[in-house]
Amino acid sequence: MAGIAARPNEDRPMLGIVLMLLTYFFFSCVDVSAKWLALAGLPAFQLAFMRYFGHFMISMSLIARHGGSLSRFGTDHVGLVLLRASMLAGSTILNFIAIRYLPLTLTSTILFSAPIIICALSGPFLGEKVGVWRWAAILVGFVGIFIAIRPFDASFHWAVFLSLGNAFVFAGYSLITRKLAGTVSSDTMQLYSGLVGSVALAPLALFYWQAPGSLMHWAMLIGMGVFGWVSHEMLTRAHGYAPASVLTPFFYVFIIYLGIWSYFVFGTLPDRWTVLGALVIMASGLTIWLRERWLARHDPGRLVTRAPVEANAHP
Questions:
Q1: Could you report the per-residue pLDDT of 89-103, keeping only the tens digit for each?
Q2: How far apart (Å, rounded) are the C-alpha atoms in residues 236 and 177?
Q3: Of 107, 122, 143, 148, which alpha carbon lies 20 to 30 A from 4's?
């Protein structure tokens, strides 16, 4: 079945980097809005539904603007596309429940483990070879998670398990994205992400629905869908201007944004264990990235773990 062709790439790395910085700023807006509304008493299912419903409505409006034909979004990999969209919606639910109880800096630190999990699973799922250097980095990354969540500390909260589940589900979503890269357009995956999230979450959202308490709450609910769509669109375009090897390190700016939001909006700062865990996880992820760049430069024919468009995005 014919689908949409991918956009041609351009060599404009600085523009790609700027788009990545904007991408994670808007992703941080999604999380801070969700936490604010969750603390105001709105249920996670309602928040997640609005995040995907807004996303879906933007996609549909663009389709209508360009002639209204849905046939160009066809794909021969509909099963994998639906599974990918379902995993993204599940990841969002886990994240939105967790951020009600955990600091944003901790949930983002745990999410940083997703690229490490992807690297660990790329062998059995994608047939990629993971050598000693990257296995060592993976183990160090899991030590960083242990430091950040402090499972034997009195401050340990059960919502950490939801955040860890989010990282694993998001890693699965990213692996499927990688498998579909080059065969299914990002526009098609965008449309299915909004559609599946909206349809799957609508019954639960209606069952638990609570009326927002103010116009600002309504604006934040609608804004989550807009921020989510814009973020994924910017991420896609960023990868059209610069390779993943250039853009991947800027994934970590996300925790800086959330740290700023946490301080000014919620009056909290990450404790020293979260900071230490984040630094260890970041060092692990960057080690994997550097190793992959080295392998790509010295053995171009070797299949290595590369971050596709949206593989290091955000649920």
A1: 999 999 999 999 999
A2: 12
A3: 122
305 touches 171 (CB < 8 A): no
Residue 5, pLDDT > 60, answer no
3-state SS, 25-53, equals: HHHHHHHHHHHHHHHCCCCHHHHHHHHHH
Helix (H) or strand (E) holding 262: none
Q: What is the pLDDT of residue 69?
A: 64
Dig out the tokens for 292 from the structure: 């992959």
Most confident of 75-84, 177-186, 223-232, 239-248: 223-232
Measured CA distances, 282 to 12, 108, 145, 166, 250 (Å): 26, 11, 11, 18, 11
| CA-based end-to-end distance of the chain | 28
Whole-angstrom distance, CA of residue 307 vs CA of residue 117: 12
CA distances in angstroms from 181 to 5, 185, 307, listed in the order given: 12, 7, 10
Q: Has residue 1 got a pLDDT over 70?
A: no
